[in-house]
Amino acid sequence: MTVQWVEMEEKAPMPDSRAAPIPVAQYLRMSTEHQRYSTTNQRLEINRYAATHGMRVVVTYEDSGKSGLTLWGRPGLQAMLDDVLSMRRAFQAILVFDVSRWGRFQDVDESAYYEFVCRRAGVPVLYCAEPFADVPGPMAVVIKSVKRAMAAEYSRELGAKVFAGQSLLAGRGFHMGGFPSFGLKRVLVSETGEVKGELGRRQRKSIQTDRVLLALGDPLDCGLIRLIFYLFVERRMSEADIARQLNWGGYPSRTGMLPWRGEMIRSILRNERYTGTTLYARRSCSLKTPWHENPPERWVRAEDAFPAVVSRDTFEKARVNLEARQRHYWSDDELLDVVRRVHAKHGDVTPALMMKEPGAPQTTLFIFHFGSMADACEAAGVRPNAKQCSRRNIIHRRRTTKLLLLKELADHYANMGVGFYWHPQTRRACVEGGLTLSVRSTQAYRTTNGQPFWLISPDRRVAPDVSLVARLACEGDVILDYFVIPGDEMRTGYVNKEGGAVRTWVNPYRLQSMNDVMRRLEMLRLSHPPCMPRLMTHLSKRRRKAQGIRKRDEYTSKSL
Protein backbone atom coordinates (compact mmCIF):
# COMPACT_ATOMS: atom_id res chain seq x y z
CA MET A 1 0.00 0.00 0.00
CA THR A 2 2.79 2.39 0.85
CA VAL A 3 4.77 1.65 -2.28
CA GLN A 4 1.69 2.17 -4.40
CA TRP A 5 1.05 5.55 -2.75
CA VAL A 6 4.63 6.62 -3.49
CA GLU A 7 4.23 5.52 -7.09
CA MET A 8 1.05 7.54 -7.43
CA GLU A 9 2.77 10.58 -6.00
CA GLU A 10 5.65 10.21 -8.43
CA LYS A 11 3.36 10.04 -11.48
CA ALA A 12 2.42 13.38 -12.96
CA PRO A 13 -1.30 14.19 -13.14
CA MET A 14 -2.92 13.31 -16.46
CA PRO A 15 -3.79 16.32 -18.58
CA ASP A 16 -7.43 17.24 -18.91
CA SER A 17 -8.42 19.74 -21.54
CA ARG A 18 -11.63 20.58 -19.71
CA ALA A 19 -9.91 21.37 -16.36
CA ALA A 20 -7.87 24.47 -15.53
CA PRO A 21 -4.05 24.07 -15.55
CA ILE A 22 -2.59 22.89 -12.26
CA PRO A 23 -0.52 25.66 -10.58
CA VAL A 24 3.01 24.47 -9.84
CA ALA A 25 6.34 25.94 -8.68
CA GLN A 26 9.70 25.39 -10.31
CA TYR A 27 13.04 25.19 -8.54
CA LEU A 28 16.22 26.08 -10.47
CA ARG A 29 19.77 25.69 -9.25
CA MET A 30 23.18 26.14 -10.80
CA SER A 31 26.42 25.91 -8.85
CA THR A 32 29.64 27.76 -9.57
CA GLU A 33 30.99 24.71 -11.40
CA HIS A 34 31.23 24.52 -15.20
CA GLN A 35 28.33 22.20 -15.86
CA ARG A 36 26.23 21.10 -18.75
CA TYR A 37 22.84 22.56 -17.88
CA SER A 38 22.22 26.16 -16.97
CA THR A 39 19.14 27.67 -15.39
CA THR A 40 17.93 28.71 -18.83
CA ASN A 41 17.96 25.13 -20.08
CA GLN A 42 16.32 23.95 -16.89
CA ARG A 43 13.56 26.52 -17.30
CA LEU A 44 12.86 25.45 -20.90
CA GLU A 45 12.67 21.76 -20.00
CA ILE A 46 10.40 22.42 -17.02
CA ASN A 47 8.06 24.58 -19.09
CA ARG A 48 7.84 21.86 -21.76
CA TYR A 49 7.06 19.27 -19.09
CA ALA A 50 4.42 21.53 -17.51
CA ALA A 51 2.71 22.17 -20.86
CA THR A 52 2.65 18.45 -21.66
CA HIS A 53 1.08 17.48 -18.31
CA GLY A 54 -1.48 20.25 -17.99
CA MET A 55 0.42 22.44 -15.52
CA ARG A 56 1.19 26.13 -15.26
CA VAL A 57 4.28 27.55 -13.49
CA VAL A 58 3.12 30.32 -11.14
CA VAL A 59 6.23 30.88 -8.99
CA THR A 60 9.95 30.34 -9.47
CA TYR A 61 12.55 29.67 -6.76
CA GLU A 62 16.11 30.01 -7.98
CA ASP A 63 19.58 29.51 -6.49
CA SER A 64 22.10 30.67 -9.07
CA GLY A 65 25.72 30.14 -8.21
CA LYS A 66 24.87 28.09 -5.10
CA SER A 67 26.34 24.75 -4.12
CA GLY A 68 23.99 21.84 -3.61
CA LEU A 69 25.97 20.22 -0.80
CA THR A 70 23.94 21.75 2.03
CA LEU A 71 20.71 23.60 2.65
CA TRP A 72 22.68 26.42 4.24
CA GLY A 73 23.38 29.20 1.74
CA ARG A 74 20.47 28.35 -0.59
CA PRO A 75 17.84 31.06 0.04
CA GLY A 76 15.66 29.88 -2.86
CA LEU A 77 15.19 26.37 -1.48
CA GLN A 78 14.78 27.72 2.05
CA ALA A 79 12.05 30.13 0.93
CA MET A 80 10.26 27.34 -0.95
CA LEU A 81 10.30 25.05 2.10
CA ASP A 82 9.02 27.91 4.25
CA ASP A 83 6.09 28.46 1.88
CA VAL A 84 5.29 24.74 1.78
CA LEU A 85 5.26 24.39 5.58
CA SER A 86 3.45 27.67 6.33
CA MET A 87 0.57 26.89 3.92
CA ARG A 88 1.07 30.24 2.13
CA ARG A 89 1.65 28.45 -1.14
CA ALA A 90 -0.26 29.08 -4.37
CA PHE A 91 0.97 25.88 -6.04
CA GLN A 92 0.18 22.17 -5.78
CA ALA A 93 3.47 20.59 -6.92
CA ILE A 94 7.16 21.38 -7.37
CA LEU A 95 8.98 20.79 -10.66
CA VAL A 96 12.76 20.19 -10.63
CA PHE A 97 14.93 19.35 -13.63
CA ASP A 98 16.65 16.30 -12.07
CA VAL A 99 17.83 14.88 -8.74
CA SER A 100 21.17 16.69 -8.83
CA ARG A 101 19.42 20.09 -9.10
CA TRP A 102 17.51 19.30 -5.90
CA GLY A 103 20.87 18.86 -4.20
CA ARG A 104 24.08 16.90 -3.93
CA PHE A 105 23.73 16.22 -0.20
CA GLN A 106 26.44 13.92 1.09
CA ASP A 107 23.83 12.19 3.24
CA VAL A 108 21.22 10.89 0.80
CA ASP A 109 18.70 10.69 3.65
CA GLU A 110 18.86 14.48 3.97
CA SER A 111 17.84 14.90 0.34
CA ALA A 112 14.99 12.41 0.82
CA TYR A 113 13.93 14.15 4.04
CA TYR A 114 13.31 17.55 2.39
CA GLU A 115 11.36 15.83 -0.37
CA PHE A 116 9.33 13.92 2.22
CA VAL A 117 8.51 17.15 4.08
CA CYS A 118 7.04 18.60 0.90
CA ARG A 119 5.15 15.42 0.02
CA ARG A 120 3.63 15.12 3.50
CA ALA A 121 2.43 18.72 3.21
CA GLY A 122 0.59 17.74 0.02
CA VAL A 123 3.12 19.14 -2.46
CA PRO A 124 4.89 16.35 -4.43
CA VAL A 125 8.31 16.96 -5.99
CA LEU A 126 8.42 15.94 -9.67
CA TYR A 127 11.69 15.52 -11.61
CA CYS A 128 11.18 16.44 -15.25
CA ALA A 129 14.25 14.74 -16.76
CA GLU A 130 14.11 11.53 -14.71
CA PRO A 131 12.31 8.33 -15.86
CA PHE A 132 10.67 7.58 -12.50
CA ALA A 133 7.13 7.72 -13.88
CA ASP A 134 7.95 5.07 -16.47
CA VAL A 135 9.30 2.54 -13.91
CA PRO A 136 6.50 0.66 -12.07
CA GLY A 137 6.49 -0.50 -8.46
CA PRO A 138 9.33 -0.14 -5.98
CA MET A 139 11.92 0.24 -8.74
CA ALA A 140 11.17 3.98 -8.77
CA VAL A 141 12.33 4.27 -5.15
CA VAL A 142 15.47 2.25 -5.86
CA ILE A 143 16.43 4.28 -8.95
CA LYS A 144 15.87 7.55 -7.12
CA SER A 145 18.12 6.42 -4.25
CA VAL A 146 20.83 5.44 -6.74
CA LYS A 147 20.52 8.83 -8.43
CA ARG A 148 20.94 10.63 -5.10
CA ALA A 149 24.04 8.58 -4.29
CA MET A 150 25.47 9.33 -7.74
CA ALA A 151 24.88 13.06 -7.27
CA ALA A 152 26.69 12.97 -3.90
CA GLU A 153 29.55 10.88 -5.29
CA TYR A 154 30.04 13.35 -8.16
CA SER A 155 30.75 16.13 -5.63
CA ARG A 156 33.20 13.95 -3.72
CA GLU A 157 35.11 12.97 -6.85
CA LEU A 158 35.16 16.52 -8.15
CA GLY A 159 36.42 17.84 -4.81
CA ALA A 160 39.27 15.33 -4.76
CA LYS A 161 40.27 16.22 -8.33
CA VAL A 162 40.17 19.96 -7.65
CA PHE A 163 42.25 19.60 -4.48
CA ALA A 164 44.85 17.48 -6.28
CA GLY A 165 45.13 20.03 -9.08
CA GLN A 166 45.41 22.96 -6.68
CA SER A 167 48.03 21.13 -4.61
CA LEU A 168 50.08 20.54 -7.77
CA LEU A 169 49.95 24.22 -8.69
CA ALA A 170 50.72 25.29 -5.11
CA GLY A 171 53.77 23.01 -5.11
CA ARG A 172 55.05 24.92 -8.13
CA GLY A 173 54.86 28.19 -6.17
CA PHE A 174 51.59 29.65 -7.46
CA HIS A 175 49.27 31.59 -5.16
CA MET A 176 45.98 29.69 -4.78
CA GLY A 177 43.76 32.40 -3.38
CA GLY A 178 43.19 34.82 -0.52
CA PHE A 179 44.55 38.26 0.17
CA PRO A 180 48.33 38.65 0.10
CA SER A 181 50.11 39.32 3.37
CA PHE A 182 51.18 42.79 4.41
CA GLY A 183 54.11 43.90 2.23
CA LEU A 184 53.31 41.46 -0.59
CA LYS A 185 51.29 41.77 -3.79
CA ARG A 186 49.71 39.48 -6.38
CA VAL A 187 51.04 39.37 -9.91
CA LEU A 188 49.17 37.86 -12.86
CA VAL A 189 51.25 35.73 -15.24
CA SER A 190 50.34 33.93 -18.45
CA GLU A 191 50.71 30.23 -19.18
CA THR A 192 54.21 30.89 -20.59
CA GLY A 193 55.30 32.85 -17.48
CA GLU A 194 54.91 36.33 -18.98
CA VAL A 195 53.96 38.97 -16.38
CA LYS A 196 50.67 40.65 -17.31
CA GLY A 197 50.38 43.05 -14.41
CA GLU A 198 49.49 43.47 -10.75
CA LEU A 199 46.12 42.39 -9.36
CA GLY A 200 44.41 44.91 -7.13
CA ARG A 201 42.12 44.29 -4.21
CA ARG A 202 39.17 42.01 -5.11
CA GLN A 203 40.46 41.52 -8.64
CA ARG A 204 40.64 38.03 -10.12
CA LYS A 205 42.05 36.42 -13.20
CA SER A 206 39.73 36.15 -16.21
CA ILE A 207 41.53 33.47 -18.26
CA GLN A 208 41.56 29.89 -17.00
CA THR A 209 45.17 29.21 -18.02
CA ASP A 210 46.57 32.30 -16.25
CA ARG A 211 48.25 31.95 -12.87
CA VAL A 212 48.91 34.21 -9.86
CA LEU A 213 52.26 34.67 -8.14
CA LEU A 214 53.26 36.56 -5.01
CA ALA A 215 55.87 39.32 -5.21
CA LEU A 216 57.36 41.98 -2.96
CA GLY A 217 55.08 44.97 -2.54
CA ASP A 218 55.74 48.52 -1.40
CA PRO A 219 59.41 48.97 -0.33
CA LEU A 220 58.22 50.93 2.74
CA ASP A 221 56.06 48.00 3.87
CA CYS A 222 58.93 45.54 3.32
CA GLY A 223 61.21 47.82 5.33
CA LEU A 224 58.65 47.89 8.16
CA ILE A 225 58.58 44.10 8.18
CA ARG A 226 62.38 43.93 8.45
CA LEU A 227 62.24 46.55 11.24
CA ILE A 228 59.67 44.48 13.15
CA PHE A 229 61.83 41.36 12.95
CA TYR A 230 64.92 43.37 14.00
CA LEU A 231 63.22 44.89 17.04
CA PHE A 232 61.85 41.54 18.11
CA VAL A 233 64.93 39.37 17.49
CA GLU A 234 67.84 41.74 18.14
CA ARG A 235 66.38 44.31 20.54
CA ARG A 236 64.21 41.75 22.41
CA MET A 237 61.18 44.05 22.35
CA SER A 238 57.72 42.65 22.98
CA GLU A 239 54.94 42.77 20.41
CA ALA A 240 53.09 45.51 22.31
CA ASP A 241 56.25 47.63 22.57
CA ILE A 242 56.90 47.25 18.83
CA ALA A 243 53.33 48.30 18.04
CA ARG A 244 53.71 51.31 20.33
CA GLN A 245 57.00 52.23 18.66
CA LEU A 246 55.46 52.11 15.18
CA ASN A 247 52.49 54.19 16.30
CA TRP A 248 54.79 56.83 17.77
CA GLY A 249 56.69 56.92 14.49
CA GLY A 250 53.47 57.36 12.50
CA TYR A 251 54.01 54.28 10.30
CA PRO A 252 50.81 53.14 8.54
CA SER A 253 49.50 49.64 9.20
CA ARG A 254 48.09 47.20 6.67
CA THR A 255 44.77 49.01 6.48
CA GLY A 256 46.50 52.37 6.13
CA MET A 257 45.13 53.52 9.49
CA LEU A 258 46.60 53.69 12.96
CA PRO A 259 47.07 52.11 15.37
CA TRP A 260 49.24 49.04 15.23
CA ARG A 261 48.36 46.35 17.77
CA GLY A 262 50.28 43.53 19.34
CA GLU A 263 48.20 40.91 17.53
CA MET A 264 49.14 42.42 14.17
CA ILE A 265 52.84 42.28 15.07
CA ARG A 266 52.48 38.68 16.23
CA SER A 267 50.81 37.62 12.97
CA ILE A 268 53.69 39.14 10.97
CA LEU A 269 56.30 37.35 13.07
CA ARG A 270 54.52 34.01 12.53
CA ASN A 271 54.02 34.42 8.78
CA GLU A 272 56.41 32.12 6.92
CA ARG A 273 55.61 33.81 3.62
CA TYR A 274 58.18 36.49 4.41
CA THR A 275 60.91 33.89 3.83
CA GLY A 276 59.77 33.44 0.21
CA THR A 277 57.78 30.27 1.01
CA THR A 278 54.20 29.61 -0.01
CA LEU A 279 52.02 27.30 2.08
CA TYR A 280 48.81 25.62 1.02
CA ALA A 281 46.28 23.35 2.75
CA ARG A 282 47.14 24.44 6.27
CA ARG A 283 43.39 24.56 6.84
CA SER A 284 40.76 22.76 4.81
CA CYS A 285 36.99 22.78 4.44
CA SER A 286 36.02 19.98 2.06
CA LEU A 287 32.40 19.44 1.03
CA LYS A 288 31.09 22.27 3.19
CA THR A 289 32.38 20.73 6.41
CA PRO A 290 33.65 23.00 9.23
CA TRP A 291 37.15 24.40 8.85
CA HIS A 292 39.85 22.36 10.59
CA GLU A 293 43.63 22.51 10.94
CA ASN A 294 45.63 19.96 8.96
CA PRO A 295 48.78 18.30 10.33
CA PRO A 296 52.08 19.73 8.99
CA GLU A 297 52.78 16.64 6.90
CA ARG A 298 49.73 17.46 4.75
CA TRP A 299 50.83 21.02 4.02
CA VAL A 300 51.91 21.83 0.47
CA ARG A 301 55.11 23.88 0.73
CA ALA A 302 57.04 25.66 -2.03
CA GLU A 303 60.24 27.35 -0.91
CA ASP A 304 61.95 30.20 -2.79
CA ALA A 305 58.73 30.89 -4.71
CA PHE A 306 59.49 34.65 -4.66
CA PRO A 307 62.20 36.90 -3.15
CA ALA A 308 62.34 36.74 0.63
CA VAL A 309 61.70 39.76 2.87
CA VAL A 310 63.70 38.34 5.79
CA SER A 311 66.17 35.50 5.96
CA ARG A 312 65.25 32.02 7.12
CA ASP A 313 67.64 32.33 10.07
CA THR A 314 65.94 35.51 11.29
CA PHE A 315 62.50 33.92 10.97
CA GLU A 316 63.58 30.84 12.95
CA LYS A 317 64.97 33.03 15.75
CA ALA A 318 61.67 34.91 15.89
CA ARG A 319 59.75 31.63 15.99
CA VAL A 320 61.86 30.34 18.88
CA ASN A 321 61.34 33.57 20.83
CA LEU A 322 57.59 33.46 20.21
CA GLU A 323 57.36 29.90 21.46
CA ALA A 324 59.33 30.85 24.55
CA ARG A 325 57.10 33.85 25.26
CA GLN A 326 53.79 32.34 24.26
CA ARG A 327 53.71 29.42 26.67
CA HIS A 328 50.09 28.82 27.54
CA TYR A 329 50.78 27.56 31.07
CA TRP A 330 53.45 28.22 33.65
CA SER A 331 53.51 26.20 36.84
CA ASP A 332 54.38 27.83 40.16
CA ASP A 333 57.68 25.93 40.34
CA GLU A 334 58.74 27.15 36.89
CA LEU A 335 57.94 30.76 37.79
CA LEU A 336 59.89 30.48 41.03
CA ASP A 337 62.87 29.04 39.13
CA VAL A 338 62.81 32.11 36.88
CA VAL A 339 62.86 34.39 39.93
CA ARG A 340 65.81 32.52 41.45
CA ARG A 341 67.70 32.55 38.15
CA VAL A 342 67.25 36.29 37.65
CA HIS A 343 68.23 37.06 41.25
CA ALA A 344 71.33 34.84 41.04
CA LYS A 345 72.42 36.54 37.84
CA HIS A 346 71.72 40.20 38.72
CA GLY A 347 71.29 40.28 42.49
CA ASP A 348 67.81 41.78 42.19
CA VAL A 349 64.44 41.06 40.57
CA THR A 350 62.85 43.92 38.62
CA PRO A 351 60.65 44.08 35.50
CA ALA A 352 63.60 45.42 33.48
CA LEU A 353 65.83 42.51 34.53
CA MET A 354 63.00 40.08 33.89
CA MET A 355 62.75 41.34 30.30
CA LYS A 356 66.42 40.55 29.71
CA GLU A 357 65.99 36.93 30.73
CA PRO A 358 65.40 34.74 27.63
CA GLY A 359 61.94 33.17 27.63
CA ALA A 360 60.86 34.83 30.90
CA PRO A 361 57.14 35.73 31.19
CA GLN A 362 55.82 39.16 32.00
CA THR A 363 55.58 40.31 35.60
CA THR A 364 51.77 40.33 35.43
CA LEU A 365 51.85 36.53 35.37
CA PHE A 366 53.71 36.50 38.72
CA ILE A 367 51.09 38.84 40.16
CA PHE A 368 48.31 36.55 38.88
CA HIS A 369 49.90 33.44 40.45
CA PHE A 370 51.24 34.85 43.74
CA GLY A 371 49.44 38.16 44.26
CA SER A 372 52.49 40.41 43.81
CA MET A 373 56.16 40.28 42.87
CA ALA A 374 57.09 40.58 46.56
CA ASP A 375 55.07 37.44 47.36
CA ALA A 376 56.71 35.64 44.43
CA CYS A 377 60.18 36.59 45.70
CA GLU A 378 59.38 35.42 49.22
CA ALA A 379 58.02 32.12 47.87
CA ALA A 380 61.26 31.65 45.92
CA GLY A 381 63.39 32.36 49.01
CA VAL A 382 64.55 35.74 47.70
CA ARG A 383 64.31 38.93 49.71
CA PRO A 384 62.10 41.50 47.91
CA ASN A 385 63.28 45.08 47.58
CA ALA A 386 61.56 48.07 49.14
CA LYS A 387 59.75 49.05 45.94
CA GLN A 388 58.23 45.60 45.62
CA CYS A 389 57.03 45.66 49.21
CA SER A 390 55.47 49.08 48.70
CA ARG A 391 53.82 47.88 45.53
CA ARG A 392 52.44 44.85 47.36
CA ASN A 393 50.81 47.10 49.95
CA ILE A 394 49.24 49.18 47.20
CA ILE A 395 47.89 46.10 45.42
CA HIS A 396 46.51 44.73 48.68
CA ARG A 397 44.76 48.00 49.58
CA ARG A 398 43.22 48.37 46.15
CA ARG A 399 42.09 44.76 46.04
CA THR A 400 40.54 44.94 49.49
CA THR A 401 38.71 48.16 48.67
CA LYS A 402 37.46 46.82 45.36
CA LEU A 403 36.11 43.62 46.92
CA LEU A 404 34.42 45.64 49.67
CA LEU A 405 32.66 47.87 47.13
CA LEU A 406 31.59 44.94 44.98
CA LYS A 407 30.14 43.07 47.96
CA GLU A 408 28.20 46.15 49.08
CA LEU A 409 26.80 46.59 45.60
CA ALA A 410 25.89 42.89 45.40
CA ASP A 411 24.06 43.04 48.76
CA HIS A 412 22.24 46.23 47.75
CA TYR A 413 20.93 44.82 44.47
CA ALA A 414 20.11 41.48 46.09
CA ASN A 415 17.82 43.27 48.56
CA MET A 416 16.18 45.08 45.63
CA GLY A 417 15.70 41.86 43.69
CA VAL A 418 17.88 43.05 40.82
CA GLY A 419 20.46 40.79 39.20
CA PHE A 420 24.09 41.76 39.75
CA TYR A 421 27.12 39.90 38.38
CA TRP A 422 30.73 40.69 39.21
CA HIS A 423 34.23 39.27 38.88
CA PRO A 424 36.83 40.25 41.49
CA GLN A 425 39.92 40.07 39.27
CA THR A 426 38.81 41.71 36.03
CA ARG A 427 36.95 44.60 37.73
CA ARG A 428 33.90 43.80 35.60
CA ALA A 429 30.39 44.10 37.00
CA CYS A 430 27.01 44.08 35.29
CA VAL A 431 23.61 45.16 36.59
CA GLU A 432 20.45 43.55 35.23
CA GLY A 433 19.39 45.44 32.13
CA GLY A 434 22.85 45.74 30.58
CA LEU A 435 24.53 48.46 32.69
CA THR A 436 28.24 47.60 32.98
CA LEU A 437 30.42 48.92 35.82
CA SER A 438 34.13 49.33 36.43
CA VAL A 439 34.91 49.41 40.16
CA ARG A 440 38.29 50.92 41.00
CA SER A 441 40.18 52.75 43.71
CA THR A 442 42.85 55.43 43.59
CA GLN A 443 45.62 56.10 46.09
CA ALA A 444 47.68 59.17 46.79
CA TYR A 445 50.79 59.95 44.76
CA ARG A 446 53.54 62.33 45.83
CA THR A 447 54.68 65.34 43.83
CA THR A 448 58.22 66.69 43.84
CA ASN A 449 57.46 68.94 46.82
CA GLY A 450 55.90 66.06 48.78
CA GLN A 451 52.26 67.13 48.37
CA PRO A 452 49.81 64.23 47.72
CA PHE A 453 47.44 64.07 44.78
CA TRP A 454 45.03 61.46 43.42
CA LEU A 455 44.79 60.41 39.79
CA ILE A 456 41.43 59.52 38.21
CA SER A 457 41.95 57.87 34.83
CA PRO A 458 39.83 55.77 32.43
CA ASP A 459 39.90 52.01 32.73
CA ARG A 460 42.09 50.81 29.86
CA ARG A 461 41.07 47.17 30.19
CA VAL A 462 37.31 47.55 29.72
CA ALA A 463 34.92 50.11 28.23
CA PRO A 464 32.20 50.33 30.93
CA ASP A 465 29.00 52.34 30.93
CA VAL A 466 29.82 53.72 34.40
CA SER A 467 33.08 53.96 36.38
CA LEU A 468 32.97 53.88 40.19
CA VAL A 469 36.23 55.24 41.66
CA ALA A 470 36.90 55.33 45.43
CA ARG A 471 39.53 57.81 46.71
CA LEU A 472 41.58 56.33 49.55
CA ALA A 473 43.31 58.24 52.32
CA CYS A 474 47.10 58.50 52.41
CA GLU A 475 47.26 56.02 55.28
CA GLY A 476 44.95 53.14 56.05
CA ASP A 477 41.93 51.88 54.14
CA VAL A 478 39.68 54.87 54.81
CA ILE A 479 37.62 55.99 51.79
CA LEU A 480 37.48 59.78 51.51
CA ASP A 481 34.84 60.08 48.77
CA TYR A 482 33.49 58.44 45.61
CA PHE A 483 33.24 59.37 41.96
CA VAL A 484 30.50 57.91 39.73
CA ILE A 485 31.37 58.91 36.17
CA PRO A 486 29.50 57.83 33.00
CA GLY A 487 31.62 56.16 30.36
CA ASP A 488 31.18 58.88 27.74
CA GLU A 489 32.37 61.53 30.25
CA MET A 490 35.32 59.59 31.68
CA ARG A 491 38.79 61.07 31.13
CA THR A 492 41.93 61.78 33.13
CA GLY A 493 41.59 64.08 36.15
CA TYR A 494 43.43 64.98 39.39
CA VAL A 495 42.39 65.72 42.96
CA ASN A 496 44.71 67.72 45.25
CA LYS A 497 45.40 67.34 48.95
CA GLU A 498 42.50 69.61 49.96
CA GLY A 499 40.10 67.37 48.05
CA GLY A 500 39.49 69.87 45.29
CA ALA A 501 39.43 68.76 41.66
CA VAL A 502 42.22 70.24 39.61
CA ARG A 503 40.02 69.83 36.54
CA THR A 504 36.46 71.10 37.04
CA TRP A 505 34.74 68.27 35.11
CA VAL A 506 35.34 65.90 38.06
CA ASN A 507 33.33 67.92 40.63
CA PRO A 508 29.77 67.07 39.44
CA TYR A 509 30.45 63.36 39.86
CA ARG A 510 31.79 63.49 43.47
CA LEU A 511 29.71 61.73 46.15
CA GLN A 512 30.35 61.58 49.89
CA SER A 513 28.68 58.34 51.00
CA MET A 514 27.85 54.89 49.72
CA ASN A 515 24.14 55.65 49.94
CA ASP A 516 24.62 58.50 47.47
CA VAL A 517 26.47 56.08 45.20
CA MET A 518 23.57 53.62 45.30
CA ARG A 519 21.04 56.33 44.42
CA ARG A 520 23.18 57.62 41.55
CA LEU A 521 23.68 54.12 40.13
CA GLU A 522 19.95 53.44 40.38
CA MET A 523 19.19 56.60 38.39
CA LEU A 524 21.72 55.58 35.76
CA ARG A 525 20.33 52.03 35.62
CA LEU A 526 16.76 53.23 35.09
CA SER A 527 17.82 55.71 32.40
CA HIS A 528 20.03 53.14 30.67
CA PRO A 529 18.31 51.52 27.66
CA PRO A 530 17.62 47.84 28.37
CA CYS A 531 19.92 45.60 26.38
CA MET A 532 22.04 42.51 26.68
CA PRO A 533 25.56 43.26 27.96
CA ARG A 534 28.16 43.55 25.22
CA LEU A 535 30.22 40.71 26.68
CA MET A 536 27.20 38.39 26.84
CA THR A 537 26.16 39.39 23.30
CA HIS A 538 29.63 38.59 21.97
CA LEU A 539 29.69 35.24 23.75
CA SER A 540 26.23 34.29 22.49
CA LYS A 541 27.22 35.08 18.90
CA ARG A 542 30.34 32.93 19.19
CA ARG A 543 28.30 30.14 20.78
CA ARG A 544 25.72 30.18 17.96
CA LYS A 545 28.47 30.15 15.37
CA ALA A 546 30.24 27.25 17.08
CA GLN A 547 27.08 25.19 17.29
CA GLY A 548 26.44 25.73 13.60
CA ILE A 549 22.71 26.34 13.79
CA ARG A 550 21.13 25.58 10.45
CA LYS A 551 17.74 26.16 8.89
CA ARG A 552 17.31 22.41 8.74
CA ASP A 553 16.63 22.34 12.48
CA GLU A 554 13.79 24.84 12.01
CA TYR A 555 12.20 22.74 9.29
CA THR A 556 12.58 19.64 11.44
CA SER A 557 10.80 21.28 14.37
CA LYS A 558 8.02 22.57 12.10
CA SER A 559 7.37 19.24 10.48
CA LEU A 560 7.34 17.20 13.69
TrEMBL record:
Q: Where is the composition biased (Basic residues)?
A: 539-549
Which top-level group of life is the source organism from? Bacteria
Q: Which residues form the signal peptide?
A: none
Give the Recombinase domain ranges: 203-328
Q: Which InterPro entries match?
A: DNA_bind_recomb_sf, DNA_bind_recombinase_dom, HNH_repeat, Resolv_N, Resolvase-like_N_sf, SSR_resolvase
Composition bias (Basic and acidic residues) maps to 550-560
Question: CDD domains attached here?
Answer: Ser_Recombinase
Resolvase/invertase-type recombinase catalytic domain segment(s): 23-173
Q: Annotated region Disordered: where?
A: 537-560
- Identify this protein by name: Serine recombinase
